[in-house]
Amino acid sequence: MGKKHQTPLLDELKKGKWISFVREIERAAEKSERTEDLLGQVEESYRDKVNHWKHGGMAGVKSYGAGMVGRFSEFPDKYPGIKECHSMRIIPSAGFFYNSDFLRKLADISEKYAGGLLNFHGATGNIQVLGMSQAEAEDVFQAVAELGFDLGGSGSDLRTPSCCAGQARCEFANYDTMKICHDLTEEYLDELHRPAFNYKFKLKFSGCANDCVASAARSDLAFIGTWKDKIKINQDEVKNYVKKLNVQKYVLDKCPTKCMWFEGEKLVIDDENCVKCMHCINVLPKALRSGDEKGASILIGAKAPLVTGPRMGMMLVPFYDINEDAKNDYEWLKGLISNMWEFWDEYGVSRERIGELIGRVGLNTFLEGIGLEPIPEMVGHPRSNPFIKFTEDED
Amino acid sequence: MTDETKKKVEDKIVGLVKEYAGKKRFKPIDIVKEMEKEFASEGLTKDDIKAALKEIMDEEKLVYGYAGGSFLALPENQ
Which position among A68, A197, A238, B24 has the lowest Cβ density within 10 Å, counted as fewest Cβ atoms? Predict the structure, then answer.
């Protein structure tokens, strides 16, 4: 098939040794006329320095209010293949594990109904089938459902929860991220598929402070694995590291609270002052391990820059005993989330994320509303700006 | 919630969206709050209203649209 549209600007993006998204779209375009039109429009976007999509509108499958992201071309006559170019979001397996048979079948679905393009994964963690029209949406949905998968979140709803690979693949995981992510996804499918919030709400689960799913920056409620007791030190391994690495320079000097030092050859950690940032454990994994009393810190209010500026999550619950709560089907956590959603429903305004609501009404009002006692550890950043003020006559 | 009350709620919601079609976009959350007030004397809860809304969507009397936030709309054939 000859090239339908000339794309000199996109061709520049194929140069160099790294994988080019242009090359991938071109490969898909060899089998799909609509994807050829996609190349033509993207070329125009680079030329004009604006994108030529119309966003939103009516795109969806029967009775679901989520899972489809509508995109319409600004030039439907020039690029009829992408007059409608919607994406379908599919809930990934927790930790993003798939077997090859599923991937082949999903690729076939994408080629049959859409433009042969997939995203693994969107920013929220969904698998995305790209480039279908509304007329094809129901068929794609049914085909995906036959593989045992369901649609993800979009719009003013609970977005698809996501987690790191946790204990399935990572020695640093402090709790079973995949279990809680899976269990809460099942629990909140209605909230995921039927938009009933002021705006989006994201849950992300990271097994440790390395935060591989960027929960502290991207989720309204972030769960970051941590521990309560002391870091476990293997002094023999510390000595081995000292032989090959400048531990003072690359570990001790970089500790944010300077809570580590050497006494002779012995590494000492003042655990009371450790903020569990994981830096030392990352650099000296054979010598240091997180403690035995594992759980998660819960942060609230992070979001990307849309509507108002970006926010990082602030500490809400310094230590949540996930393993204990899991025995009761997360009763405590579900109660907390329910109270948050009730408060947000009641006092939030249109397109206001929960972090912005807290900023507007104040943390104390929010805590009172959700029935959580204020504690000094509820801070924006470790060691800075406590939101909780005490008067002199309080203990 | 009795079937009769449920029908009243459903009719009210669909009626509102029809009445304001092309003039105002109703967010599901606003409709739920509005119906909660409207049917407070009949003891309906937020969950009852949400259940009624779910039924409306399942029966495709209304569909969801998106423009910055989700809203309720009439199906395109209407």
Answer: B24
Residue B56, min C-alpha distance to chain A (Å): 8
Handedness of CA A238, A239, A241, A245 (dihedral sign): positive
Chain A residues near residue B73 by CB distance under 8 angstroms: 58
Note whether A39 and A29 are within 8 A (CB): yes
Phi, psi of A75 (to 5 degrees): -125, 65
The domain locations on chain B are: 3-73
**Residue whose structure tokens are 């995203």:** A119
Residue B26: beta bridge partners? B72
Q: What is the pLDDT of residue A395?
A: 52
What is the predicted ipTM?
0.84
Task: Enumerate domains of chain A plus CATH numbers.
Answer: 18-146 (3.30.70.2500), 162-227+293-386 (3.30.413.10), 232-289 (3.30.70.20)
* pLDDT tens per residue across span B17-68: 999 988 888 999 889 988 998 898 888 888 899 889 989 998 989 998 888 8
- Average confidence score pLDDT of chain A: 92
Interface of B with A (CB under 8 A): 27-29, 32-33, 46, 50, 53-54, 57-58, 60, 63-70, 73, 76
Answer yes or no: CATH 1.10.10 is held by domain B3-73.
Answer: yes
Which helix (H) or strand (E) covers residue A118, if one does?
strand A117-120
